[in-house]
Write a sequence for this structure.
């Protein structure tokens, strides 16, 4: 007893010293960089020291070890603190912290996976907990590693709804391996937060969302490690530690003062004064190191007892009516047979997106994410960071809800697959709130993304396969109506490759489209043919990257004229993708797309009303040739 | 006492009868349409009857009367119920309900303001409460009308984080005129909701978010009206009524049964059986009508004691270094002097977006919205529906968080102004999480939107003025770095009009750009001139609508060659806007834009690294001319 108390006292003193080292490291790095958020690091230094050097189990030399615990710095602006902790843990030399924010440094302004000890990029606040949910789902239900996931949040970011989406899903899935920590320093960027230092507000909210929640003094190491012990020991639910802290803790002239957000100490007297206050607070940190994750193994595989799928590849006979959304579900279920890393998520639309086909075939690898798309995508990013290949689906229009998460997924280098169903006005009577008209534009704009838009069931099947094979963010756009199968089962598809569906040597124009409007284009082609006007029809399939070569060649062969048609806004989508590709060649591109907020109505009525049906295409061809 | 009890009994019976009328109306309309969500209407029929015919004060013949209470059907898929309630209230003939979902009908699949009694479109779940927050902010702090705002939500949509953003802001602003009602029917689209009929979960959460919360039996009219009374009498905080209900209530073969979401009763036997169960439950509804909003007045104006702004129009002398974000704040503050309907919101970035200049000048018309962008935009839509001109600002990258709200704002026909600051890689060291590279693409794709991208302080000033003058969604993109003023104070700006900044008769190419890259283009132009290569430089200013005429004319005069440069993703932004406009003319458009996820670094380093600096422009011109 005496011995334990003594040990604890030493430990607490060492952790306190480490916290002050982290403060100094953070201050020095940001002063060297001339920018950054030192005071946001200082409030969380004790919490971080305790997590790293007391609670966490991690093989520092092997950050990809799947049994490592995980630490997500959701308040990404405290990046220097994170970097300091990894440096002090021996991941890299402390001296390297001075490269903070330099173009060639892995130590970016906010954390990104350029640094190997970072799994997910943070800095858009309120997203870290969702990523942690994905990691914890993996640890508890898939790899069954028994590892913990720690997520350090700011108090300000708890205003983000995405935090509460993550919170509800974490308790729904009983993620007792997920431990949230809220650094309640009470000061936001531009003013006091909504609740200042009232930690009870946060504690009650987490409790109401099904968490084990405890308030602590965030600068009292003994309280922190006791709360961490309690959190790690609490079964069947996630835990949160709500810590009252002071922004700028440890340096009297900034501590708990407004106006110091995102300001580095000026080198010279200001910096010197800060360091002079902190240095005496450091005694020995000898013996402090991150403990290894001993005795843990991956116990994956048992979650899924996949049976061979009943469907076979030759089910799609030409002419059969199949919605691409349904073919997506079929393909995903089949892909799940072949690839155990494939998992799926959906936002209570699985009977519309047909991801339920995957769920029925691979129940343990499907995570119902309810009507909370931000968390669905954030959790998918977390799953991706643990080596899974997550396919997340909902109505395409509702993926707009998660656009910031998708944007950050690109920064996270996530291997994320998204499927948006119910594209465009062709959904009909449900009206504009359910119609995706912006999804191609938003997904194209994501750096490094791939955007696939299958037109029939065979193309949808290939899109799913290609998505799984391609590392990175892949978006698949599916449609609600049934459309005929036009490709044979052995047709070859590739990312970046378009399909010429109709052609002749007499073609006067090339029509480029995908999805339901491909069938409008084919009907227009038939009608024009009956009037002796030949046109070429291209199924773009890959909206990004786009098949420049095929488009350019076809454009040149057809009078330098391309007409694009899309069931999407006329700005930023398929038409712009084509114009982007061929306008350097001086090929003329006319775009047919939706140019006003649509109304409810029958699909065919709407295609006509918004100028993307067969008659509109016929008119466009006639007026332009 | 006896009399009151008797009256209450009659009232309760009449409201119950009305509820069943609404059920029948909803069923008949959806069966006639052949689609829709009758069972989702049936669960909420008693709640809706009680709000409309007991609690609400509304001049039905004058839906624009600002002192009317407001009713927002956040669970928009129950639209037929809403339409039925308005029809039974005398807004239009009940017979018209049979036009539900027809192309020419105002009764769309989900509510839109095509119907005059609808202020905001709903159907993307979880957004109604934010719109209600905006309406309630208006009622309590601006117009001071004393009106109530009722928001009917589903239980499933309470999974959306946006609901909790709205909840926290509603209690922060003590919106006792906001009354939420949660229809806990326990069934989502594809399965049971997370909590089924456990109303306590929701009640505790709202309570933890600072609301007065009460659980009721959602089919017990007496309980409902008592809870409505209590809610309307509770001061200083919003109230919520959490109602346990049954989906499909009133028709035994669908009541509380899974698999009936979004299915209309088939005309014939199925419909007849349903109606046969409901019809006997109707007795007299005589005397039930919506009570008028008597004795209420608008008491606006006192919130703001605007003093004349210190700044004057001639502050921007040519060559002065001013960031467009700062000019935005200046202009907005000044606009507030002239136009009392202008209000502003910000997401704890007001000292970066400079909306704090407006706050300081017009404190009562500024609503700090904290780090909760979805609710910020939703509340702005609500304010817009009450006749205000809301300007909502944050870092442009964080507007992605609210993309679904922006999309729905277009369906709502909202008069919404958005400003996104810190565009592109030129923010520098903070890194990619803080860089907006998708904002132009996402805002262009919105139907009916206007997108302005000012390059200097004078242009920013005009952008703010133009945004206020133009009805609809206007997005203003501002930049972090200071840039020199290049326009004189009397320069004329218009939506859809570009500015030719440099030109000669010898121009070999036209460079089109805006923002910080305009100054790179001007520097490139200088360098090229020194090598006897003349180029034209256009400041696009209006990214949507785009100045086709100027671009086409310039392109033709400069060798049919345009080079675009943008501090934005190379897909969907300014370059695509230009290509979209001029590619029908066969003018060649080469695009310089960001083509990978950027890193942290100095602004000038990043402009160079991602190929959008002066040297890149010089190289492009030389290789293409």
């Amino acid at each position: 007893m005496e011995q334990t108390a003594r040990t604890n006292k030493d430990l607490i003193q060492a952790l306190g010293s480490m916290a002050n080292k982290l403060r100094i490291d953070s201050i020095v790095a940001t002063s060297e960089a001339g920018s950054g958020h030192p005071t946001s690091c200082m409030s969380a230094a004790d919490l971080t020291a305790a997590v790293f050097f007391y609670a966490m189990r991690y093989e520092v030399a092997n950050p990809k070890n799947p049994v490592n615990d995980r630490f997500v710095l959701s308040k990404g602006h405290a990046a220097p603190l994170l970097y300091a902790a990894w440096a002090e843990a021996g991941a890299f030399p402390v001296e390297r912290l001075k490269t903070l924010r330099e173009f060639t440094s892995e130590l970016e302004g906010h954390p990104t996976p350029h640094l190997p000890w970072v799994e997910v990029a943070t800095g858009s606040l309120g997203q870290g907990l969702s990523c942690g949910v994905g990691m914890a789902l993996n640890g508890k239900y898939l790899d069954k590693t028994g590892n913990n996931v720690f997520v350090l949040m700011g108090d300000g970011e708890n205003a983000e709804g995405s935090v509460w989406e993550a919170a509800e899903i974490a308790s729904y899935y009983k993620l007792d391996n997920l431990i949230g920590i809220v650094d309640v320093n009470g000061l936001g960027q531009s003013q006091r937060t909504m609740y200042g230092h009232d930690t009870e507000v946060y504690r009650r909210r987490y409790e109401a969302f099904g968490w084990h929640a405890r308030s602590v003094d965030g600068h009292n190491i003994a309280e922190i490690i006791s709360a961490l012990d309690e959190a790690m020991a609490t079964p069947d639910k996630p835990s949160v530690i709500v810590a009252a802290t002071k922004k700028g803790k440890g340096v009297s002239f900034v501590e708990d003062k407004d106006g110091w957000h995102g300001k580095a100490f000026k080198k010279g007297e200001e910096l010197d004064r800060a360091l002079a206050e902190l240095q005496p607070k450091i005694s020995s940190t000898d013996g402090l190191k991150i403990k290894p994750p001993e005795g843990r193994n991956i116990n994956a595989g048992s979650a899924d007892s996949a049976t061979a799928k009943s469907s076979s590849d030759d089910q799609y006979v030409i002419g059969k009516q199949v919605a691409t959304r349904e073919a997506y579900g079929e393909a995903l279920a089949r892909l799940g047979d072949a690839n155990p890393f494939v998992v799926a998520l959906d936002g209570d639309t699985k009977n519309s997106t047909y991801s339920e086909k995957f769920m029925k075939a691979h129940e343990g690898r499907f995570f119902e994410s309810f009507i909370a798309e931000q968390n669905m995508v954030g959790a998918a990013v977390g799953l991706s960071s643990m080596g899974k290949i997550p396919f997340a689906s909902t109505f395409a229009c509702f993926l707009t809800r998660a656009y910031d998460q998708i944007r950050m997924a690109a920064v996270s280098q996530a291997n994320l697959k998204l499927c948006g169903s119910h594209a465009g006005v062709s959904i009909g009577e449900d009206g504009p709130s359910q119609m995706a008209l912006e999804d191609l534009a938003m997904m194209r704009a994501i750096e490094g993304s791939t955007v696939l838009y299958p037109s029939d069931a065979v193309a949808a099947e290939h899109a799913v396969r290609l998505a799984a094979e391609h590392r990175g963010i892949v978006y698949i756009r599916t449609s609600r109506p049934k459309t005929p199968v036009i490709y044979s089962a052995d047709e070859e598809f590739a990312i970046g490759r378009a399909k010429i569906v109709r052609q002749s040597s007499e073609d006067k124009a090339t029509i480029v489209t995908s999805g339901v409007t491909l069938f409008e284009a084919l009907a227009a082609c038939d009608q024009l043919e009956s009037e002796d006007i030949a046109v070429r029809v291209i199924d773009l399939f890959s909206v990004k990257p786009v098949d420049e070569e095929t488009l350019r060649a076809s454009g040149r062969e057809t009078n330098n004229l391309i007409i694009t048609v899309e069931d999407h806004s006329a700005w930023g989508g398929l038409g712009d993708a084509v114009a982007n590709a061929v306008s350097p060649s001086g090929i003329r591109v006319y775009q047919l797309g939706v140019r006003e907020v649509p109304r409810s109505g029958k699909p065919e009525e709407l295609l006509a009303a918004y100028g993307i049906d067969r008659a509109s295409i016929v008119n466009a061809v006639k007026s332009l040739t």
